[in-house]
């Protein structure tokens, strides 16, 4: 029998031989040497358990979150971001049009558009269409057995069915429920209310009320309530932008944001040889038409840079009631899109030679479907420089949808949406009055 020192040296040579030969060593060499030297019954180098076998891959944690995702906004995206952080893979159920109508009132955006929106969120791995509004025992079993879901996720705001019961009671009872924090300052009810308020004010006056209302939209004044007598309790934007939220939305899938003033261009982004495609716009009420033109634009290069115009620019070009969503709200929605690599928050209206050089832009694009496509006829054509450089291209828009399309849908059925908002506003008011701090966002 050799000494412990001889045994250690022999084992060290064996480990070295294994490493040189490319054999996977499952346990640390130092730990093995320590165990061999402490064992008085050791009789030469033998393979410990685990050597030569690959470690079994850990099963990914799959989490499920459902929702209507009607008029999808940055609050929805933030909920999905938080849900994805609780697991390795996020499966999202999108509630059917019929279920939404029965439980909440008519949706503004149909299922196929809502599916486009959810699939485009960079934290989403899989989507289930026509999900039920309430998680039944049969559907929960299907989630666990067929989709291998480990946990069902929902926000800290209550989701109560028409009969007064908790929509997630079964998941909680099964011990497979996790909660995230609701995003402050926005809801679909709030956004619909902004548009209804906008339309009512517009019919009253074409001057002073327009500009004052626009200032409230653009600067997110407090928790101002609609006092026009509808009783809907509509909040004008009270989103409070923070640098942390912008960083959270910039992280993941390589997307980043650049805070930009027209006179202060800061070059950040991809490698020198990357083909950079640039597209700009208001991206107000971020919708399926926006998502699809961004998808097409991304296919033309290696890196998609998106410029988002300031509130003042949008207001000057589209009218005093625009934008409905302010600059930071619009920026977060675009940042959450999986096709977008970088966002310029506050992009200039005109694409200058300096900007093209600073960001190394290879191609500037614009869709055929937009709020204003007369730019080439105007004296102040914002794309004059890229056109002169022969790096401008008009893309065929896959969907005929604009922000005006969304507003018209609501206006044409405003009575139904007023009724829906009155019902939802009460539950939101109760939530805000009784909410407490929730960590982890």
TrEMBL record:
- Keywords noted in UniProt: Lipid biosynthesis, Lipid metabolism, Membrane, Nucleotidyltransferase, Phospholipid biosynthesis, Phospholipid metabolism, Transferase, Transmembrane, Transmembrane helix
- Top-level lineage group: Eukaryota
Listed under GO biological process in this entry are: phosphatidylethanolamine biosynthetic process
Protein's name in the database: Ethanolamine-phosphate cytidylyltransferase
Record region (Disordered): 209-234
Q: Name one GO molecular function term.
A: ethanolamine-phosphate cytidylyltransferase activity
Which parts pass through the membrane? Answer: 12-33
Residues annotated as domain Cytidyltransferase-like: 64-193, 278-409
Q: Could you tell me which species this protein originates from? A: Trema orientale
Q: Could you confirm whether the keyword Transferase appears in this record?
A: yes
Reaction catalysed by this chain? phosphoethanolamine + CTP + H(+) = CDP-ethanolamine + diphosphate
